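Forwarding these from the shared drive since the link keeps breaking.
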Amino acid sequence: MRSGVVLQGVDTPDVFESYVTEIERSGFDHLWLTDSSLHSRNPYAYLTLAARASSRLLLGTAVTNPLTRHPGITAVAAATVDEIAAGRFILGIGAGDRPLEALGMRPAKLAVLEDSIAAIRALLRGGDVDHTSAGFTLHDAHLRFGARADIPVFISASGPKTLELAGRVADGVVLLAGLHTDGIRFALEHIDRGVAAAGRSARPHVAVFAYGRIDEDEQAALAAARSIAAWFPQTAPVYCELAGLDRPLIDEVRRRYSGGEFQEAAAAAELLPDEFVRRMALSGNRERTVAQLRGLAEAGVDSVNVFPLGDDRMSTVARFRDAFDAAFGARAEVAEVTEVADGTEVFAR
């Protein structure tokens, strides 16, 4: 099991760099930066800061999309950060989410996401790329500088079709399904369908993003996590049903909260039972978090990445590190890529 931290570019550069230093010193394997259009600072600029402030953390976007930047420009950004980070970059990419609306966009169709990944990979391999579709166009395009050909691509997924796409083509999956093990197993089944359809011999790395707060004051932890729990009925209702929420309540939460700013979720979040919040997010003390982490490992997850909520985010990061070490013992060696017999590259578990 690997560990990671997900941050937003909401802090000043100096503060952010101090966080990176502390995250690496604490023994985490991954650091992810959100890419939410106008909500936070540019992730590639901040990942460059992270590359300079660290020596072994794997650094990734969490996640970018095929729309706000042309896939050719994303390939350039990925190659540049990867070069600065000496081969430690991961391209996390998905269809996009609600922040796109401020730019007059809607999430990308699955075909555009798949085509974009194929084009980015072809450019990184040094090929000449021609592509014309409703999503984007490339005319005899190629990178005019050297790039690592095998920069890992992680697809952000929750729905069955995107999960199956990830199983077919991705090096990893950023799984947005909450923390309830029934939901995790449902997602893994769809990933495995994609793996089988592509004739791959290994499942891609499965990285769960665990939103929330860890606190010995469990009511404070629940309060911090409640709004993110209200986000799941809008974006991933099947996981809400698997976690025990009945359909009429899911529909009422969706009516009150459309899935935009978390601050707007308060009225809808108050409808949610405490136990549902606990199943979808980190929202308890050390003991509860240790049990959640062990359950995720048993379900088949390869890494858990804390997305801290609330004012004192780094306290949750430290408590997560403590719970992770309690759950799994000594810290594992740095995550690395391994190759299986058919040439499929997967991240070491």
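-- next protein --
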Amino acid sequence: MEDSDIPQLKPKEPVSDSVLIPKIGSQPQSVKKLPRKTPKWLLIAGGILIVLAIYLIFSFLNIYQKAKALSLEVTNLSTEAKNQNLPGVKSQLTKVDGALIKFRSSLTLIGWMKIVPYFGGFVSDTQHAANAGTHLIDATEVFLLAIEPYADIIGFAGEGAEEAGDGAKTTQERLDFLVKSIPELIPRADEISQKVSSAQKELEGIDPDKYPEKLGDKEIRAKLKEGLAIFDEVAYFAINGKPLLEASPYLLGIDSPRNYLVLFQNDKELRPTGGFMTAYSIMKVTKGKFEPVSSNDIYNLDSTYRPTIDAPEAFIKYLKGPYVASHKMRLRDMNWSPDFAESMKVFAGEAESVGIKNIDGIIAVDTQLLVYLLDVLGPIGVSGYGNFSNEIIAECNCPQVIHELESFADIEGPVVWSENEPGKIVYAPPNYDNRKKIIGPLMNSILSNAFGQPKDKLPALFEAAFKSLREKHVLFFLIDAEKQAVVESFEIAGRISDYDGDYLHINDANLGGRKSNLYVTQEVSQEILVAKDGSVEKTLTITYKNPAPYDGWLNSVLPNYVRVYVPKGSELTSSEGLEEKFDPYEEFGKSVFAGYFQLRPQGVAKVTFRYKLPFKVKGGYLLLIQKQPGTGSPLYTVSIDKTEEEFYLTTDRLLKLR
């Protein structure tokens, strides 16, 4: 068979002679991807976070609502207190207690957050503050029970007011009732002290500096600092008030009459304990009743005194006057020590030689006490001397009472005696005779006005007295050592305090600058540099300003002797602004930097001390600043670690800077 006879199969498409093997990957292949599974742990974690977020949102909303309700009740309580409504205060306090219980309960929802870094501190602070609030409510309840029988005495209307008498009774009658009731108050003071102490322990760990300065437009840090400072003030008196209450029967002459020497310190002529001792009075206190016995001018007392104590070098060099002829100290200058008790020990001992005997203590007051009292009493009349008020007058741009007292105190010029008629004065400077007479009548008028006030003036009178004590315009020195310890514990004795940490006390003395302290202001700046090893370098700058012109009477050149008390062992590295410098020395367990300069009317003087502290600081930084008695409210600025704190120093202050 021929090939042509064989059937031929022809493909439609020509086929290559070679076998075609497809190339792998020559054409993209579409592959279906299986969905990747989310790890189970991630799903669980996400779920937990969502649940936690919801939990926290509802928890914080609940806390916010409870805090808002608590704030409202506290505001209502404050309103009742301002209205002096004792039943209203008691009722509202119960509501505050209920709101606080609910607020504390809401905090348990986030209690576990205390372990969370940073945020845990705020949670812990809130719980401590709530706990402190509970203790304070307990203390307030005890306090209200204690004062209820005497509500009328302190100006509160209430169920117990009738026990103290009707509303027409005078301040003196109410005080008589209170004095008789002191033994019943002492046990309550113990309870209050314990509860306030517990609150203080809860709050002492709160650091305001870790809080933001502002939240939106609301002040946070400053308000917190202010609140803690106010609490510290209240706590101090609540905790230390019992010993003073126990000593009150002695001080007020309940068991037997007390005789006090009252010294009038002119703070417009500033001296170490508050002012030049211009006059004095003997006051008798019997069963809470105050009776001025006699008053006189300090110069008259000095005229019968034979000096025996060596005068400080500063008197001889700068004050001159009688110290040119004799280098022995006069009675009127014996408040040279910044420690009031030390000055009064010397004064009382020497005053005995001129007839000041059988006194139970010394009370020093300055002109600011009169200003505070007249703020409450209004203008008062003094027979033979006219009216006294707090009205600001153009003659000195100061209260009228200050101007009048300075006028009576001014006896510059000689006294000329008659040659022909022994004992007759031919010429005397203005107020020569009146100066020694004004103190007694003025004191009588103030006391009679104060003790004759109706009940609505009582809270303001108590506030004026309390403010004068806290700001060191009234100081006590008692002969009885046990009673002296009581007034020292209450910090109304003008002592230089012992303190282990950083310390500052600035003490100025006007040595012949007339009454220029009426116009002089003081600003104090402290820059604190803490090195990595804890060593501390400080720059202290004191700026004195006298904006008023020279008048030849009140305002003159101020010869100022300044002493700066710092921790013992501090090393002075430099000082500027002093006309004369003195070697550092030690006193009262402190190192003292001293110097002298003059401040002219309408002038400015700036004094700077740079020094190193004798110890290293680890952790927190505490600074105790003690105010000089008789001064106003100097502005202080303290800077450390790029933070700055500014305040007016109205009383001794302990700063927690870190």
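DSSP finds 14 helices and 26 strands in the chain. The radius of gyration is 37 Å.

- D.
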